[in-house]
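Quick one, tokens below:
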């Protein structure tokens, strides 16, 4: 069994290393020279030219997604899948682990893959802050475009990679799950940030209020630190907010985080 990992960044490289540890032949692909060099240093055979990548049985897409002019930028996903389509057979398993808007996989399955192959979405939950507990091998969700895809995905991830899975009824459910997880986390942090600003305006100690609230069995207010950073949480919260006109809370959370950061810069917060 030969596996190709497309995208050797924060998620792709650990995935490639883990798959290699499971005894499978792994080939890495990335357009970034530094990423290729890092992968090679970790023993992952990697290339920057698609023509140099041999045909594989399984393709795992771990490329980054972003925002461009207020809309999701999925160009890296589409480019990766277009490359995979060149090598596709009816039995080729393609797994998208990147975070994507709802509907992306099914659209790509028809328009890019030509309704060929087996396509699943197994969004990553990788956290480099604790790779032992939250690395490649942790409980994840899986959805597929059809029954055959689900069976192939379950066989590969559960039986071969030993990754525990929660199967969902559709690939759209899996897409929605990952965006929701990150948007929910963003909202939790933004609420804590707003609470901290209010507490200090009232002359109260935020930590004392937070600790007191958290004694209730169904309350768990998180810490308020330096504002919400990184790539995933802000991007995915915006993905969530664009799904429907019914979405109003994420926009308020984004504004709360912006105000909190300005509040810290102005020196009003007691660190």
């Amino acid at each position: 069994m030969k596996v190709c990992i497309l995208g050797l960044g924060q998620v792709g490289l650990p995935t490639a290393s883990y798959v290699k540890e499971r005894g499978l032949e792994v080939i890495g692909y990335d357009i970034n020279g530094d990423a290729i060099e890092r992968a090679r240093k970790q023993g992952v055979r990697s290339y920057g030219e698609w023509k140099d990548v041999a045909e594989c049985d399984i393709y795992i897409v771990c490329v980054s997604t972003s925002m461009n002019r207020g809309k999701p930028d999925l160009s890296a996903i589409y480019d990766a899948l277009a490359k995979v389509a060149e090598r596709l057979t009816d039995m080729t398993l393609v797994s998208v682990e990147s975070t994507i808007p709802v509907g992306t996989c099914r659209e790509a399955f028809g328009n890019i893959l030509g309704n060929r192959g087996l396509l699943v979405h197994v969004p990553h939950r990788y956290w480099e802050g604790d790779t032992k507990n939250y690395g490649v091998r942790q409980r994840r969700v899986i959805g597929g475009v059809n029954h055959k895809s689900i069976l192939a995905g379950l066989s590969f991830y559960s039986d071969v990679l030993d990754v525990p899975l929660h199967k969902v009824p559709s690939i759209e459910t899996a897409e929605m799950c990952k965006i929701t997880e990150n948007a929910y986390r963003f909202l939790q942090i933004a609420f804590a940030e707003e609470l901290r600003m209010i507490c200090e305006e009232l002359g109260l100690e935020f930590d004392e209020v937070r600790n007191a609230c958290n004694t209730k069995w169904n309350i768990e207010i998180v810490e308020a630190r330096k504002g919400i950073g990184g790539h995933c949480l802000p991007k995915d919260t915006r993905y969530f907010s664009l799904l429907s006109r019914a979405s109003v809370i994420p926009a308020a959370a984004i504004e709360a985080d912006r105000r909190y950061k300005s509040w810290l810069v102005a020196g009003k917060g007691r660190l």
